[in-house]
Amino acid sequence: MLLDFTILGADLSLYNEFRSWKDEPTMDRTCPFLDKIYQEDIFPCLTFSKSELASAVLEAVENNTLSIEPVGLQPIRFVKASAVECGGPKKCALTGQSKSCKHRIKLGDSSNYYYISPFCRYRITSVCNFFTYIRYIQQGLVKQQDVDQMFWEVMQLRKEMSLAKLGYFKEEL
């Protein structure tokens, strides 16, 4: 097996795990490639003080059933009671902190909406971006790239998750 010299700066064990995963892609989180990313990036990125809701968010991301939408400009008195119970435009449902919440999430077929801060939104979307890409690989939709390019895209998505964990996000989210 010939390695591209640009890979040498990366984690070679993860690179080899990725190559093995790519040969038989699975979404099973216990495979070595995904297990490492779950431990180092996904779990820390989706850890919030409201742990029960955080677990439900992770499950919805894994099942591709989470939706995020901007919050309308309607006054709070017109928002459904269920939505108010799950945070509100001024309180993040995942952290419990008083924050301006410009987006809300819906998990699966639930009728509840959960208001989330920009910080939480960026953490969730960075994980969603990672899952979208590996699903595309699993489904055979990423064809124009060689394995090294795919690996570097995975590394870029991991970087995005790391930045989100540290609290870096774009204000316009």
SSE-based structural type: mainly alpha
- Report the end-to-end length measured between terminal Cα atoms: 43 Å
Secondary structure: number of strands: 3
The main sheet comes to: 3 strands, antiparallel
- Average pLDDT metric: 86
List low-pLDDT spans.
Answer: 81-85
Shape summary? elongated
Helices, by number, come to 6
The radius of gyration is 18 Å
Order of helices and strands: HHHEHEEHH
Helicity, as a percent range: 40-55%
**What's the arrangement of strands in the largest beta sheet?**
1-2-3
Hey, roughly how much beta strand do the residues contain? 5-15%
Word description of this protein:
With about 170 residues, the chain is mainly alpha-helical. The protein has a domain at about 40-70 and about 80-165. The chain has helices spanning about 10-25, 30-45, 50-60, 80-85, 120-140, 145-165; strands at about 65-70, 105, 115. A three-stranded antiparallel sheet has the order 1-2-3. Helix 2 (about 30-45) packs parallel to helix 6 and helix 5 (about 120-140) packs antiparallel against helix 6 (about 145-165). It is elongated and about 45 Å long. The termini are far apart. Mean pLDDT is about 85; it is low at about 80-85. One of its GO terms (cellular component) is Golgi to plasma membrane transport vesicle. Keywords: Coiled coil. This is RAB3A interacting protein. Pfam families: RAB3A-like_C.
